[in-house]
Amino acid sequence: MSQNPAWRTYKYAGKKKQKRNVADEKTTRKLIAALEEESIKYETYFKLIIATGMRRGECCGLKWKDVDFSEKSIHICRNVVKVTGEDIIVKEPKTAAGDRYVYFSLEMASLLKEYRSFCWGELELHEGRELTTENYIFRRHGENLPMTPSTFTWRFKLILKKHNLPQDLNVHSLRHTAASLMISGGADVATVSGILGHAQVSTVSAEMQERMGV
Questions:
Q1: Contact at 8 Å (CB) between 175 and 169?
Q2: Is 52 helix (H, G, I), strand (E, B) or coil?
Q3: 1 or 78: whose pLDDT is higher?
């Protein structure tokens, strides 16, 4: 056969638009300043991802019992998934590497404690009860369910637009930004891979090489 008879069914999509995978240092500083003008809920959520590189669904799945302030660590052991038209699903990480601990700074500890106090006050005011360690950190009002990742995706786009930040960034970009910050700070690729929950070190290595144009 001289040619593929199905060639006419192929649709040429043109050159793929290059998406920004990581915020540079200047953009990251502007983003952090912008987050500090937002509500403490969104400031805490997005700063956690920038600081730890966790996935957006992992961040949604955190409970207060997962945070150890004495060790300044967070146990990542859940992932939140929401498919349009279906109920929210809270499940375990796909791989053993996904079940991990990440660590945070004194500054992040201070923000988390401030946010915890805010959540405590909100629960007492609106539901007449105290916060417990079983509560999700980012919780739906009136329900013992986590907020959906898409809520934060939508909010992040609004924040970018409001503060005149690059529109081609997204929540997943913050995960890549975290990896870049760790590596530029002296962490080796294997360590960063473990923090991000990758099953293979080569995943982070390939991503970093692609962004650096290697």
A1: no
A2: helix
A3: 78
Residue 133 has pLDDT above 80, yes or no: yes
User: Token pair of 103, please?
Assistant: 């660590």
Amino acid at 159: I
| Strand order through the sheet with 100-103 | 67-68, 73-76, 100-103
Say whether 54 sits in a helix, a strand or coil: coil
Report how far residue 68's alpha carbon sits from residue 82's, in angstroms, rounded to the nearest whole number: 27
Amino acid 56: pLDDT: 96
Strand, helix or coil at 197?
Answer: coil
Q: Which residue has the higher pLDDT, 86 or 53?
A: 53
Written as six digits, the tokens of 143 are 């329900």
pLDDT tens profile 21-31: 789 999 999 99
Predicted pLDDT of residue 206: 56
Buried-exposed string 130-153: b where 16+ CB fall within 10 A, e elsewhere: ebeeebbbbbeeeeeebbbbebbe
Average model confidence (pLDDT) across the chain: 87
Q: In degrees rounded to 5, what are phi and psi of residue 112? A: -65, -40
Beta strand 100-103 pairing with 79-81: unpaired
Range 35-54 burial, b when 16+ CB lie within 10 A, else e: beebeebbbbbbbbbbbbbb
